[in-house]
Design goal:
Layout (H helix, E strand, L loop, with lengths): L2 H4 L3 H5 L3 H9 L9 H14 L1 H15 L4 E2 L2 E2 L2 H7 L15 E4 L12 H9 L2 E4 L2 H11 L4 E4 L5 H13 L4 E4 L12 H9 L3 E4 L5 H9 L6 E6 L4 H11 L5 E6 L4 H12 L4 E6 L7 E6 H9 L9 E5 L7 H16 L4 H12 L3 H16 L1
Parallel strand pairs: 3-6, 3-7, 4-5, 4-6, 8-9
Antiparallel strand pairs: 1-2, 9-12, 10-11, 10-12
Helix pairs in contact: 5-6, 9-10, 12-13, 12-17, 13-14, 15-16, 15-17, 16-17
This protein binds S-adenosylmethionine.
S-adenosylmethionine binds next to helix 11, strand 9, strand 10 and strand 12.
Length: 378
Amino acid sequence: MSRRQNEAGPFARTDASRRSTVIGAAAQAHFDKHQHLALAADQIDLAAANPEVALEQLKSALLQIGRRQILCGTSAAPHLRVIVSRPPHRKSAMKQESAVLYVVPTPLGNLADISPRAAETLCAVRWVAAEDTRHTAPLLKHLGAAGKLIAAHEHNENEAAEKIVALLTKGEAVALVSDAGTPGISDPGARIVAAVRAAGYHIIPLPGPCAAITALSAAGLPDAHFFFYGFLPAKSAQRRAALMSLRDLPAALVFYEAPHRIIATVEDLASALGETRTLVIARELTKLFESIHACPLGEAAAWLQADPHRQKGEFVLIVSGIPTHERGGVAEAKQVLELLLADGLPVKQAVRLAASITDASRNELYRLALAWKEHASS
Ligand code: SAM
């Protein structure tokens, strides 16, 4: 049995037949762009062929979940309903507020992660503003939600905001979603929320999936704080300069990264932050090929290069914060060095002086000086 089948939760545990285990695994409903169509089709075919098995699963799962939630007019959690049948459009039993913008997180890759409240909200509203309507349409279809989609991406946020405010003015409720995770977290959406707030309308945020928080929960780093940065600049010089500005923060640093930049970014992390801090590479969270790997920053690029699969998918990178023994000293040495450089001293001389004034390592200061120079000339 595969790891995923093992993870199918109440379904896998209660099912005797192999076939029902397959359905249970399908309830994981991964819908990233490579997988969702195939899996969605599997669920629907299997459910149609096995209505009794699916209903049995539904009953036992509800017993294990220990509650009956009214969702879109059906007694089922949304991911359970997906496997029973493709639902017709339904009205929600939820009391819908009027003139409200709901900010609704959606799953990162596993449909079962939609919260009952998020599903209910998406079924209840007549309008859903989405970052990519093509991406959100299948989710609404799975939920049996009949809301009309409004495109709200980073290139039309002002126009979308005007449209949403106009709907709110008419007393309509609107849900805002992004492609995955929580809207406004490295996603378009902040301008829409700001416009709605400025127009005086009520905004109701729902808690839910977020890649950064999911990765942090499994990182196990000792830092008491974290600093969420999101996407670093695409160009290496700007990226290194940004990293230098984060170097002395006494907090774990959280980044989002795309697969085509993962190696370059990890190399820059090591050269800017030093090779010994721990890096956690969280890839494809909640999806079929989820992996979470921790190693010293200096070993990360080689680990990624050792297997091309390790460079694929979506990434959260978390670097442990500056070690306690480096804290005060480096910050002070950096300040002295930067004063000397700003006064026009050549790098070598500034490094020598700063090292003798502060006791910091020359190598460290040399690296700081080069980064300062690069930043000053960019
Ligand atoms: N708003 C989203 C959130 O709440 O996490 C983030 C949106 S941002 C445009 C997309 C980035 O989030 C990806 O490039 C990746 O860095 C990260 N991400 C999204 N889904 C992920 C996943 N399943 N595993 C790892 N990282 C993910």
